[in-house]
Amino acid sequence: MVKKYKEILRYHSNGFSQRQIASLTGVSRGTVIKVIDTFKCANVSWVEVI
Asked: Is this model's pTM higher than 0.90 or not?
């Protein structure tokens, strides 16, 4: 699942919409929103996750 989180954050940083990210990664839009919000609250970028 960590790999999915990295993909979500990478797509988000490249300007993809939440719906596009959900479709590309195979997770629900709710999961996309939760992952993005969690990392925003933690003030962590996807680059730092790598």
From this structure: no
